[in-house]
Write a structure and sequence with these properties.
Blueprint (H helix, E strand, L loop, with lengths): L2 E5 L5 H13 L2 E4 L13 E9 L2 E2 L2 H10 L4 E7 L6 H11 L2 H4 L3 E4 L3 E2 L6 H15 L8 H11 L2 E2 L7 H8 L1
Parallel strand pairs: 1-2, 1-3, 3-5, 5-6
Antiparallel strand pairs: 3-4, 7-8
Bound molecules: flavin mononucleotide.
Flavin mononucleotide binds next to α1, β3, β7 and α5.
């Protein structure tokens, strides 16, 4: 099965998963910003991955075009975020980004990434610092584990990527 992995990565976490998936499936690896819809016709399966930015997914506009125009192919979408892989978070991400009709055409996977403040663009640094100030205003007892983890991650980068996380996605494409 001819497969392509198309990805949008800002600081390298999505790229790490895209590399692992492409290697495992002997798939072509395509940078999201260089991907063109008309060049994807030759593939049987398409895997599209981006990261979570305030619940949105990077590359979402292109991913939606693929779902609308190339839905005769096997499609997997994965999202990478700093949050843990909790069922409710995953459902929220899926439902906030895709309509019920769109969800018919692809399988969704959440692959936990990490957080590296130093590698962010200036704009993203400012956005994250605003979030940090908001969290800092809360009493420690009001913070949940995710929020505490995020505050710690500003000081020391965290990397939760794990090659085992791609197993379900690989099985979906192969079967
Ligand atoms: C402005 C901003 C907003 C973010 N929002 C979320 C979020 O809503 N949920 C989450 O799990 N991670 C969030 N993150 C963390 C990134 O999704 C995470 O660091 C991801 O691993 C980045 O992957 P990439 O560097 O390959 O793009 C956010 C990061 C930034 C900079």
């Amino acid at each position: 099965m001819k497969t392509a992995v198309i990805y949008w990565s800002k600081t390298g976490f999505v790229k790490k998963y895209a590399d692992w998936i492409a290697e495992e499936l002997s798939a072509d690896l395509i940078l999201g910003k260089k991907a063109k819809l008309e060049n994807l016709n030759e593939y049987d399966a398409l895997i599209l991955g981006g990261s979570l930015y305030a619940v949105g997914i990077t590359g979402l506009d292109f991913i939606k075009k693929v779902i609308a125009n190339l839905n005769n192919k096997k499609i997997a979408v994965f999202a990478t975020g700093a949050s843990s892989a909790r069922e409710d978070i995953i459902a929220e991400v899926k439902n906030n980004n895709f309509s019920e009709a769109e969800q018919e055409y692809f399988e969704f996977f959440y692959l936990r990434g990490g957080f590296d403040f130093n590698k962010l663009s200036l704009k993203d640094k400012i956005l994250m610092l605003m979030m940090k100030w908001k969290l800092k205003r809360k009493a420690v007892s009001e913070l949940d584990e995710e929020e505490k983890g995020l505050l710690d991650a500003f000081e020391t980068p965290v990397d939760f990527t794990d090659k085992n996380n791609i197993e379900d996605l690989i099985a979906y494409i192969k079967n």
